[in-house]
Amino acid sequence: MDRSKYIKILHREFLIRREENIFYSLRQFALDLEVDFSHLGYVLRNERGFSRKKAESISRKLTHLNYSQRKEFLRLVSATSGRSRYERNLAKMGLKNEEILLSRKKRV
Fold it and tell me: What pTM value is reported for the model?
């Protein structure tokens, strides 16, 4: 599973906040998300991931996402960084089910 999808979500959130405040920094973003600055750097470089618990905490702080986008964020994190194979597979199945539903809606 490609980790870059949820990294893109984090990056987009950072850029939106940066547009609102030109002096907004990555360090401030880490503080707002209550994540260690160095760990956020590792995540953005695709070297580490977040735990499910930390992803839930972060998703509540991603203010520019709606409910379904937050759920997708959590599934993406679980699918790539889940501690157990069961958790990763469950999240992947959830992502595939949503993709199927979205493709059906587009056809109608």
Answer: 0.72
